[in-house]
Amino acid sequence: MFEARLVQSAILKKVLDAVKDLLSEATFECSDSGIQVQAMDNAHVSLVSLNLRSDGFDKYRCDRNLSMGMSIATMSKILKCAGTEDTVTLRAWDNPEVIAFVFESPSKEKLAEYEMKLINMDQEHLGIPETNYSCVVKMPSQEFARICRDLSQFGESITFACSKEGIKFTASGDHGTANVKLAQTAEADKEEDAVIVNMQEPVKLTFACRYLNCFIKASPLCAQVQLSMSSDVPLVCEYKIGEIGHIRYYLAPKIDEDDN
């Protein structure tokens, strides 16, 4: 049997909001250590990696490893039926054909149960190699979201340039050019407002706006986002999920025609 209970259904809603524009369906790998999802987006350009640790749930039980193919859109619709204060329990039996979502109101007076049919999916688990990154930037997630939204009005891609001074974001197109520079903050009053750049060597990479604008949907999950970059390897955009886990997005840089 598999059972996972969260006191805050809102966390799961935010996680689904963060992936539903990229994934239409995904395999949820459940084991005694937690729940993992690794899936390419529909265009096979970006990779989403989600990890929810078992010790982050209020109650967690997984008697044997389960791979459950789920429709993200259907799951999202079901979670919209949960009240903001409701607890949510995911439940499935061995060799399941359905997964149950049980919502319970704080007063315990209302109990709602939804069953969702599982999908058969042939998905190989993608190995993500360990990489030492040339540049790791931590910055406020809302600030990063705003930069991505603002700059995507000027071009289809954004160039990230990391140096000792900080990080610079640039977009250019037919209508002009937009630049946003963020200096490293030595003394931020609050940790979540800080911009921290750990750099081994300068990095300059260009990424497609349409994917960055999907990644920033994870901003409500946490106050800070971590961007890890190296030349010629995918960007890793990581958001922590409370005390329970993280979501990471991987996006390959665009190859600049001028470089060839």
UniProtKB/TrEMBL annotation:
Q: Provide the Proliferating cell nuclear antigen PCNA C-terminal domain boundaries.
A: 127-254
Q: What's one Pfam family here?
A: PCNA_N
Q: Does the keyword Iron-sulfur apply?
A: no
Cellular location of this protein?
A: Nucleus
The record ties this protein, via PANTHER family, to:
PROLIFERATING CELL NUCLEAR ANTIGEN
HAMAP family xref list: DNApol_clamp_arch (MF_00317)
Role played? This protein is an auxiliary protein of DNA polymerase delta and is involved in the control of eukaryotic DNA replication by increasing the polymerase's processivity during elongation of the leading strand.
Q: What is this protein called?
A: DNA sliding clamp PCNA
Organism of origin is Polistes dominula (European paper wasp)
Which gene specifies this protein's sequence?
LOC107065240
